[in-house]
Amino acid sequence: MKIMTCPINGPRLISEFAYGGELRAMPDPAACGDDAWSDYVFHRNSAPGVKREWWCHTPSNTWFIAERDTEQDRILRTYLYGEQP
Amino acid sequence: MRRLPPVPGEWIDRDRPLTFRFEGRSFRGFAGDTLTSALLAEGESMLGRSFKYHRPRGVLSFANHDVNAVVQLGDQPNARADVTPLDEGMTLTAVNTFGGLRKDRASLLGAMARFLPVGFYYKAFHTKALFPLWERVFRALTGLGKVDLDAPRWRTPKRYGFCDVLVIGAGPSGLAAALAAAEQGARVTLVDENARPGGSGGYALGADPGRARQTAELVDAARAHPRIELITGAYAAGYYADHWVPLVTPERMIKMRARAVIVASGAYEQPAVFRNNDLPGVMLASAAQRLLYRHAVQPMHRAVVLVANADGYRAALDLAAHGVKIAAVIDLRPQSCLTDAELALTKRGIRILPGSCIVEARPGDGGRVASACVGPFEERGNTPTITETIDCDGILMSVGWAPTANLLYQAGTRMRYEPSLAQFVPDVLPEGVFACGRVNGTYTLDARLLDGRRAGSAAAAHAGFGEPKTITVPPETDAPNHPWPMIPHPKGKNFVDFDEDLQFKDFENAVQEGFDNIELLKRFSTVGMGPSQGKHSNMNALRILARLTGRTPGQVGSTTARPMFHPVPMAILGGRGFHPERRTPMHDQHEALGAVWMPAGDWRRPEYYARPDVARDECIREEARSVREGVGLIDVGTLGKLEIIGPDAAAFLERVYTSRYSNMKVGMTRYALMCDESGVVIDDGVVARLAEDHFYFTTTTSGATAVYRELSRLNLEWRMDCGIVNHTGAHAAVNLAGPRAREVLAAITALDLSAAAFPYLAVREGKVAGIPARLMRVGFVGEWGYEIHVPARSGAALWEALMKAGAAHGIRPFGVEAQRLLRLEKGHIIIGQDTDGLTTPLEIGMDWALKMDKPFFVGQRSMEILARKPRKQTLVGFTLPEHGLAPKECHLVIERNEIAGRVTSIAWSPALQRHIGLAFVDPDLAARGHFRIRTEHGAMIEATVSPTPFYDPDNLKQKEVS
Questions:
Q1: Of chain B's two ends, which shows fewer C-beta atoms within 10 Å, N or C?
Q2: For chain A, give me the number of helices (H) and strands (E)?
Q3: What is the nearest CA distance from A60 to chain B, expressed in angstroms?
């Protein structure tokens, strides 16, 4: 089982974590067209590479950002939202 | 075959003789014997029958891979005789025989071999019509031991282990690695599947006791080292991410987490492929050495040794030193290499025939090998001419090895074929994974010890202990493996796979039929798919395929190695049954009242309360009737219960729910509907405003965890000035409902319950039965009611106080089923039952809950788009005729032979005296006012669209008449 490092609780088993989707900026709903909005809602880039994702350490409900190389299946680093090193 | 006088270092205890029965006859052995060693010592060479042709088989590997020598051992169906320890009074039978091992009637199958070609299963099953016939035949003929369905449950709690460096394999290189890592300060766990450590250092001696002594010293040093934990009799069953390795012992699985892993797992010796290479008495050279040195069993009297490497010469010396007459050493290689072992053999006057091979082995009476027919070996030739027949009662094969690289492959190691070794070796190892010894292509003893020290030092350094030492391991000068140990024969029976009885020609046929990729070849021919998973066949299969397709083994590549490395008993994998469940604080009260439980996520909830001699449906209707006519009490403590506090609390709720909350008065509640970004309904609940900046709100039972988690994330992302607290497990909650609810509650609270002081949809805080409580006047079931939330520790007291206060009013507890019926009569939907993963609020008549003029809420932008599109479906209420069949949930609405909707909820309504339900239907059917539902036996039922609520359409029951 993989190990992930929670920025608050340290390295823990991956079974203690929940994935929260890729970190993506929401387009301005008032300004963007239907196509752009649909693209934001429904399309995900699954191409392997380095992703920035929301992850949650569920026992402590700690949300944070993980940078993950999905091609190598490696967790590169984790940090609290807004505290990117 | 016989038991030898005591051999130094033997594993058997001659002071503890044991008796056992095999195939109806009595045998003797010693403690420390395995089933195979004891039987061999008693002169039994036929231990089992092969899987397909039922040919007699004996020892092949004596290393946990002898899948033709498996026995039924009580309720254990397929005990491997080569490694299962002997115990007093054991009763064993061979598996896969018809009428016993010696006179197996199914051995006739061998004569029918030409009717059982490669890919037989595929061909047999190709015609569908014959499938049932073949299935019966195969089921009768195949399968090994018998599973005892009454076997007692075997409890195997798992253990969790942690170490800095895990060393897999306690042979010479593994021992050296463990010591090197421990000396640098790492905590080392050293694991070996054998009963004792030492590996080949204890038996591949070439009659040189110095080798055994060297190994024994390493074992002693490892045992004495305070930082080395030695686990024997346990195999590493797989490699999982971040160095997680399950170690399987006879009793349990140890889930070992390491900082670095050293694979020192050695190599499997590989058979040579010649006619009748499967006769009892033909075995791998290392098997004979293990029998000699571990169990003092002389495996034969007169041996022919087929070799292609130095290991074979050493094996011949080991046999010769223990009284075995070596009739000849047959070397596939054209020239001898003049090693010390070779010279020692020559000195003993033993014949060495270079450039030769065994064309075929011939059986004598009783099926055991009686002679070896020898001829010149030509790597590319056809079947050689037999030049000489040598009498013998045993043949040793020592032509090469295959690396035990299963765990390396699983860890993601890139392997490469090294032509100078004729072996796959690790090319690029993953971070923190190391290899040494034979699996790393290192064969001479001194080199293996150096390689072990190198890997041990590097692994310890990786784990944070010391610096990696530079140790140069000299390259091998003598190839340990022959690239083509195959001798074709027109009559076949030259086996490549002993599990599946696959012969050389089967591979030629498979390739001719187009299965020329290793993965295809495996699936078509079943090579490597038997219980040993190709440990003795994959390498040869790969060599054959490479040659037949004109490629190198490196180009062919190997099949994917997956866990488990070795069959792991289900009981070990399953471990203890552990199903966590959540109970509300009133659990014991429900139990005492006869609750029939149902799961609701992790929770257990009363489905209904059973009464003696009353059927389930009647119990549910009685519960519903008491709510409609008197008063009922239901435990709703499983609802998600959240609190949000802060200046931005109202603004936050407005962003996550579709309705408006900023204009809500303190002390009031409002329905709350939650959508995702695509505008799909995901949850609902009730929001209560306790103060300007303080809200208490509920979620569905199943949505509680996800909603709290997502709201926490959004709060972080939006950086709003509010905080969310999850009280789900900390609060108990009940719903007291019915025309007499107010009277019951009034008896145990000082709160003013008058309609003016505590109106419909209001929230109040006060004490109920002395317990601080939050009360909400909501009407989910459509009667006058109070949802009462209290601290969990007071939940049971609240329940008992309400039941006591209600006794005079005929209060009845009601369960989830009665609540479902009551809410259906009100036309209230249940998220997840009356909605699915695509349902929008527009389809379920919730337009009123969407405040589209708010600046933002999750799903709002998508809703704008959806609102402009035609509806695909709409949720409607329907009724059925008073009499007749009723459909079930999920039965389909059919219109012109097409699916036009489905039933989401249905129940018999006591209030309406007929079935009522909710269904998704095409909007034009909703407009037409009637539709047809297909029941499970094909009958069509006419349903009439009905407005909801079905019961009390003006909601007069649940609130004061204004």
A1: C
A2: 1, 6
A3: 10
Q: Which residue of A has its CA nearest to B245?
A: A1
Judged by DSSP in three states, A75 sits in: strand
State the smallest CA–CA distance between residue B243 and chain A in angstroms: 8
Tell me the C-alpha distance between B698 and B642, whole Å.
6
- Predicted structure pTM score: 0.87
Cα gap B842→B679, rounded to integer Å: 9
Contact A56 B713 (CB under 8 A): yes
Q: φ and ψ at B205, to 5 degrees?
A: -105, -25
Angle at alpha carbon of residue B231, lines to B230 and B237, rounded to 5°: 135
φ, ψ (nearest 5 deg) of residue B554: -60, -35
Predicted local distance difference test score (pLDDT) of residue B143: 65
Report angle CA B699, B599, B876 to the nearest 5 degrees. Answer: 60
Residue B69's H or E segment, with its range, is none
User: Contact, B755 vs B960, CB < 8 A?
Assistant: yes
The pLDDT score that the predictor gives to residue B340 is 81
Q: pLDDT per residue over B421-465, tens digit each?
A: 999 999 999 999 999 999 999 999 999 999 999 999 999 999 999
> B172-183 and B445-462 are packed helices; what angle lies between their axes, rounded to 10 degrees?
40
Structure tokens of B499?
Answer: 């599990």
Please write the tens of the pLDDT for every residue from B722-738.
999 999 999 999 999 99
- C-alpha B582 chain-centroid distance: 25
B504 three-class SS: helix
Of A3, A18, A81, Cβ closest to residue B716: A81
- Closest-CA distance, B713 to chain A, in angstroms, reads 6
Q: Is B948:B827 a contact under the CB 8 Å cutoff?
A: yes
What confidence score (pLDDT) does residue B136 get?
76
Please provide residue B450's backbone torsions phi and psi, each rounded to the nearest 5 degrees: -65, -45
Q: Which amino acid is at B733?
A: A
Contact B865/A34, CB-based, under 8 Å? yes
**Contact of B723 with B650, CB cutoff 8 Å:** no
Residues of B within 8 A of A20 (CB-CB) are 709-710, 713
* C-alpha–C-alpha distance, residues B533 and B517, integer Å: 18
**Partner-chain contact A81 B717, CB within 8 Å:** yes
Q: How far apart are CA B150 and CA A73, in angstroms?
A: 44
**Distance separating alpha carbons of residues B769 and B775, to the nearest angstrom:** 13
Looking at the complex, report in whole angstroms how far the Cα of residue B861 sits from the nearest Cα belonging to chain A.
Answer: 6
Q: Do the Cβ atoms of B643 and B765 come closer than 8 Å?
A: no
Q: Where are the alpha helices (DSSP H) in B575-703?
A: 587-592, 616-629, 649-656
Looking at chain B, which residue has its C-alpha nearest residue A32? B861
pLDDT at A8 over 70: yes
E-state strands within B574-707: 595-600, 603-609, 632-635, 640-645, 669-675, 681-691, 694-699
Q: Is A73 on the interface with B (CB under 8 A)?
A: yes
Counting every residue written for chain A, the total comes to 85
CA distance B213 to B219: 10
Q: Chains A and B: how many Cβ contacts under 8 Å?
A: 43
C-alpha to C-alpha distance for B639 and B658, rounded to whole angstroms: 20
CA neighbours within 13 Å on the CB side: how many for B579?
Answer: 6
Q: pLDDT (tens digit, 9 = 90+) per residue, B269-283?
A: 999 999 999 999 999
Section B374-402 average pLDDT: 93
Q: How far apart are the first and last CA of chain A?
A: 27
Which residues of A are less than 8 Å from B726 in CB distance? 61
